[in-house]
Design goal:
By secondary structure, the protein is an alpha/beta fold. It has helices spanning 20-29, 43-60, 112-117, 173-185, 198-208, 221-225, 227-233, 241-247, 253-267, 289-300, 310-313, 318-333, 336-344, 353-368, 381-388, 402-407, 425-438; strands at residues 8-13, 33-37, 65-69, 84-87, 92-96, 106-108, 123-126, 131-139, 142-149, 151-154, 159-160, 189-192, 213-218, 236-240, 271-274, 305-308, 372-376, 395-399, 414-418, 447-453, 462-469.
């Protein structure tokens, strides 16, 4: 199960991909991490999928990461007496807290926090942006609006408030129950929806602690205004282009995608590009050429991973979707322009010992062209700093912590291997060489570059770089 590529694939499990055979086929086709979408499915469904993932992990001998994706707040209008209404452009339309069924003149909006954040002129988007309203007057329990873009509005359609920070927690009561369940199961990553500000991550961290790594889903324009603080507090970032594209003009999304990827890479945080990457493969065995180009663009930008949603969860061709994504990544990474782009977009390391060691690692691998780099790591910190540098040689992350190995499955270029323990430098070098050979990354006579922290077992102490030649 050695990967012949550096970027990773995150595949969502669902009705089309929950059997043992399908999960194993997805892993063999190229899936490195599996996403459990808690917007759908029961706790029992997710528990069974995770149990199956762990069994497949044992069979293939490669750590597999599991990401639970929390639903987050869902802001929706209420129901209509006739099930739906047609709003005409220029018409007046009232939103209020009255639970009575709506009609063409008004509808229930059971979210007082939205009314509390409104200003005159604020625009509201309904049904994924298909309808647009302008707020003319408002109070604590109502908003009088003018329809700017009309259309059909039916029961329980979503509401977006672009450009406004809503006084609402990203964790609903459902999310908290799901999170407690997921952490008990032993998920490796928690994807946090509806992130608007850095404080949202602090709230989640108080609950999650060190039990899992937190991925901030950037789907709100307000989060872009606090991009650097959010990246600093998160363990990883997801460019959630679907929701982001609802609240922003579509022409802005590619620019923001590149900005988010660069900010995450500079901070050394894994970044995932998600949503509609191979959308046509829900019903087609091959993607459009534009979709293939979209995946390639994310890889050229240096993203750690690309994600499949409905393509693998409910589509007709889940394994084919993972397989073509794998092939697209491999094709890009064999293009000399890909490496040149990574070098051109590289940001300077910070002035501290771990970053200095990993910066030297990048230079040494570029000059000596070793078969592999080896990072001894407890928390995953050393491997992530090495991954940030995007070295030319693959990164073997040797860790005594299986949860760390699973979390690192999402990091660019990292092949994580659990091991028992080493006690001195001689044993460290011998074990690194043997592991590089046994996992197919090197052969006798090759060089490997090793980074570690002394004394062993202390997180964040990367202070050693050693070049070793594997005995013939």
């Amino acid at each position: 199960m050695k990967r012949e590529r550096s970027a990773r694939i995150l595949a969502t499990l669902g009705p089309a991909s929950s059997s043992r055979e399908q999960i194993r086929a997805l892993a063999e086709a190229g899936a490195d991490v599996f996403r459990l979408n808690f917007s759908h499915g029961s706790h029992e469904d997710h528990a069974e999928r995770l149990r199956t993932i762990r069994e497949v992990e044992q069979e293939i001998g490669r750590p597999i990461g599991v990401l639970m994706d929390l639903q987050g707040p869902k802001l929706r209008v209420g129901r209509f007496a006739e099930g739906k209404v047609t709003l005409a452009a220029g018409a007046s339309f009232r939103l209020d807290l009255d639970p009575a069924a709506g009609d063409a003149s008004r509808a229930n909006l059971p979210h007082p926090e939205i009314f509390a954040a409104l200003e005159a002129g604020t625009e509201l988007l309904l049904d994924d942006g298909k309808l647009r309203l302008r707020v003319d007057a408002f109070g604590a329990d109502f908003a009088e609006t003018t329809v700017l873009v009309g259309g059909v509005l039916s029961d329980r359609k979503g509401v977006n408030v672009p450009g406004v920070v809503l006084p609402i927690s990203p964790l609903t009561a459902k999310d908290r129950a799901d999170l407690d369940f997921g952490l008990t199961l032993g998920v490796d990553w928690v994807a946090l929806s509806f992130v608007q500000r850095a404080e949202d991550l602090r709230e989640a961290r108080e609950i999650i602690g060190d039990s899992a790594w937190i991925m901030a889903k950037l789907e709100k324009p307000a989060a872009i205004d606090q991009l650097e603080p959010i990246v600093a507090l998160a363990d990883g970032i997801m460019v959630a282009r679907g929701d982001l594209g609802v609240e922003l003009p579509p022409q802005q999304v590619p620019v923001l995608q590149r900005r988010i990827v660069r900010a995450s890479r500079a901070a050394g945080k894994p970044v995932v590009v998600a949503t509609q990457m191979l959308e046509s493969m829900i019903t087609s065995p091959v993607p459009t050429r534009a979709e293939a180009s979209d995946v390639a663009t994310a890889i050229y930008d240096g993203a750690d991973a690309v994600m499949l949603s409905a393509e693998s969860a409910s589509g007709q061709y889940p394994v084919e979707a993972v397989s073509i994504m794998h092939r697209i990544i491999c094709e890009v990474e064999h293009d000399p322009a890909w490496r040149a782009g990574l070098e051109a977009s590289h940001t300077p390391a910070a002035a501290n010992t771990p970053d200095a060691i990993c910066c030297a690692l990048r230079r040494v691998t570029g000059l000596l062209e070793p078969a592999a780099t080896v990072a001894y790591t407890t928390s995953g910190f050393s491997a992530l700093r090495a991954s940030r540098e995007r070295p030319v040689a693959p990164i073997l992350a040797l860790t005594r912590q299986l949860p760390t190995a699973r979390r690192l499955a999402l990091a660019w270029g990292v092949h994580a291997v659990p091991f028992e323990e080493v006690h001195d430098v001689t044993e460290m070098v011998e074990h690194a060489a043997n592991t590089a050979v046994s996992h197919g990354f090197a052969k006798p006579g090759d060089d490997v570059v090793i980074i570690a922290g002394l004394p062993f077992g202390h997180s964040g102490t990367t202070n050693l770089l050693h070049v070793a030649r594997i005995p013939r």
